[in-house]
Amino acid sequence: MNYPEHSILFINPVFKQMLWGGNRLGEDWPYQIPGDNTGECWAISAHPNGDCTVKGGKYDGYTLSELWEKEPDLFGNTGLDRFPLLVKIIDAQGYSSIQVHPDDAYAKEHENGSFGKMECWYVLDSKEESSLVVGHNAGTREELREMVHKGEWKDLIREVHVEKDDFIQIEPGTIHTFGGGLMILEIQQNSDITYRVYDFDRLTNGKPRELHLDKALEMITVPAKPLEDYIKKTGVMPENVMNLLIECEYYRVWKLDVTKPVTIKQDQSFMLMSVTRGEGTLNGNEIKKGDHFILPYGYGDVNLQGDMQLIASACNV
Ligand code: ZN
User: Looking at 196, 209, 252, 277, which residue is catalytic?
Assistant: First the structure.
C-alpha cells in the first residue's frame, strides 16, 4: 500500500570537531563545517549528543527524535523506544583512539540501558598511508591483558590497508580504529558508547583522554576473527541494482550505483539514504552528493535517474 502523505524527509547533519578530524567535509563535501578539525558529520541521527533536524516539508525543523516520538506511522510503528540507527561520514586525518564497543546486554547493565554498538564502514576514499585496525593478535585473555598493560600496541593490534569501496562490519568486542586520510560512511546502532583502550599517548588541553581499560578488557573478543572475514570488496558489484552489503540482527545496508533510470521498492519499515557520489533525481526531487534523507513507511516505488551512488540502510525489525 502507498502512503502519498509520507513524503521524503531530508535531514540536516550535525558536525563534530575531533582531535583527529580534517577539513574535507567542507572541501570535498558540500558542508559548512565548524572548523579545520571536523571529524564527523552525523548525517542521520536522533542521538541526544547530535539530534538532526528535518529540512523542508511538513516537518521542517523537527528533530529526528521528536519526529520518531510524535509520528511513529512514518517509521512503520516499529515499537522501538528510540530511533535505532545512526549514519555518519567520517574524515579521519589522524587516528581516533583504539577502542571497542559493548554489546546490548553489556551496555544495558553497565551504561544505563543504552544500546550496544554494532557498526559498519563503507570506505569512500583512501590514501596510500590510510589504514585501519581491526582485531588483535593475542591468543588468550591473559595474553591480551599482559600486552595491554605492558603497552605492546605494535605487536597487539592488527593493522591493514583498505581501499575505496571496501566494506567492513565491526561487531561489539572487536578492537578497532582507522585513520591516515580515510573517508568513511559509517552506519551503526544508535549509541555513543566507546571504551577507549589506547589513545596514542595524546593530550587534550594538557591531559590524556580517559581510558576505559577494565570494561574494554571484559568486552574484547579473544581470539579475534581472521582478518579475511572482515573486509568485503564491493567495487565490482553490478550497477543499477540494490547490492546487499550486510544483513545482521540490527540493520541491512545496500549500495546502489545509478547510471540509468531505475526503479526500486521502499519495502522496509523506513529506509535511510545517503548520496555519496554524483547527482540525479529521486521521484522528481533533485539529490546530490552529501544529501541524506529518509524514505518513510509505505513510500512505495522509488524512481532514480542520474549518475550517482547511494548507500541505503534499514533497521532489521
Ligand atoms: Zn567504533
Answer: 196
Q: Is residue 122 located within the same domain as residue 186?
A: yes
**Within a domain: 4:** no
CA of 257 to the centre of ligand 1 (A): 27
Q: What is the CATH number of the domain that holds 306?
A: 2.60.120.10
CA 211 to ligand 1 centroid distance, Å = 14
For residue 110, give its domain range.
9-233
User: Is the domain of 218 the same as that of 300?
Assistant: no
Q: Which residues neighbour 142 within 8 Å (Cβ) at sequence distance 6 or greater?
A: none
pLDDT in tens, 297-308: 999 999 999 999
CB 279 within 8 A of CB 289: yes
- Respond yes or no: is residue 277 known to be catalytic: no
Q: What's the CA-to-centroid distance between 99 and ligand 1, angstroms?
A: 6
Q: What is the pLDDT of residues 191-249, one digit of tens each?
A: 889 999 998 888 888 888 888 989 999 999 999 999 888 999 999 999 999 999 999 99
Strands (E), 80-151: 85-92, 98-100, 119-125, 131-136
Quote the pTM value: 0.94
Q: Report the separation in Å between the CA atom of 119 and the middle of ligand 1, taken as the mean of its atom positions.
A: 7
